[in-house]
Amino acid sequence: SQQGEEDPQALSIQEGENATMNCSYKTSINNLQWYRQNSGRGLVHLILIRSNEREKHSGRLRVTLDTSKKSSSLLITASRAADTASYFCATTGTASKLTFGTGTRLQVTL
Amino acid sequence: ETGVTQTPRHLVMGMTNKKSLKCEQHLGHNAMYWYKQSAKKPLELMFVYNFKEQTENNSVPSRFSPECPNSSHLFLHLHTLQPEDSALYLCASSQDRPKLFFGSGTQLSVL
């Protein structure tokens, strides 16, 4: 069964606003990653949060993890047009299997 | 650039053709992967190689044949593909998982 599911599927905001994307998963994980993909390109790793961590920051990115709710969120603050991309969560389960979600398409307009 | 190079970037082939996708990583990683990305579907892991040895084959049809001659190079040989095989094929590498470094992909169209 699919492990990571992002919500919403698509998000459109204006430049300067914050963007929040959510990821839910079904089984226990060792860690969760967020990746970014520009149209027609490969995925780029953004941040990894381990199962014993609750929050992590990297520049304008803030990731939270709630293992009791089996969910994670990615917050991009002060968004820019260059942030327009698809964002994927990927979970690593106890068997070291990495599973990607279907992604959130973020559109940041000027 | 992520250090993972894929060629070609685009490929159009007929169902009777034979073609190969190439991936090269310059990061010194010990694992390489092939993923398939279709519209509105999660990334599908196809094959995994660790130190040139295939460690995973996720029930991929035999018309896809991987080859890993060394830890830096990975190929995906294609023959008698179907239109539903049209997708973005992504190569990735890692050093002891879980963080993956992806190439830019090959956009494949099967006519």
Describe the structure using short key phrases.
heterodimer; A: 110 residues; mainly beta; six-stranded mixed sheet; five-stranded antiparallel sheet; B: seven-stranded mixed sheet; 58% strand
Outline the biggest β-sheet of chain B. 7 strands, mixed
Straight-line distance between termini of chain A: 38 Å
Helical residues, percent of chain B: under 10%
Q: Please state the overall shape of chain A, judged from the principal axes of the Cα atoms.
A: globular
Based on DSSP secondary structure assignment, what is the total number of beta strands of chain B? Answer: 11
Provide the structure class of chain B: mainly beta
Low-confidence stretches of chain A: none
Helix content of chain A: under 10%
Oligomer: heterodimer
Secondary structural class of chain A: mainly beta
In DSSP terms, counting alpha (H) and pi (I) runs of 4 or more, how many helices of chain B? Answer: 0
Radius of gyration of chain B, in angstroms, nearest whole number: 13 Å
The average pLDDT of chain B is 93
Largest interface: A-B, 22 and 21 residues
Number of strands of chain A: 11
Strand content of chain A: over 45%
Listing every helix as H and every strand as E from the N terminus to the C terminus, the arrangement of chain A reads EEEEEEEEEEE
Mean pLDDT of chain A: 93
Task: Give the helices and strands of chain B as they follow along the chain.
Answer: EEEEEEEEEEE
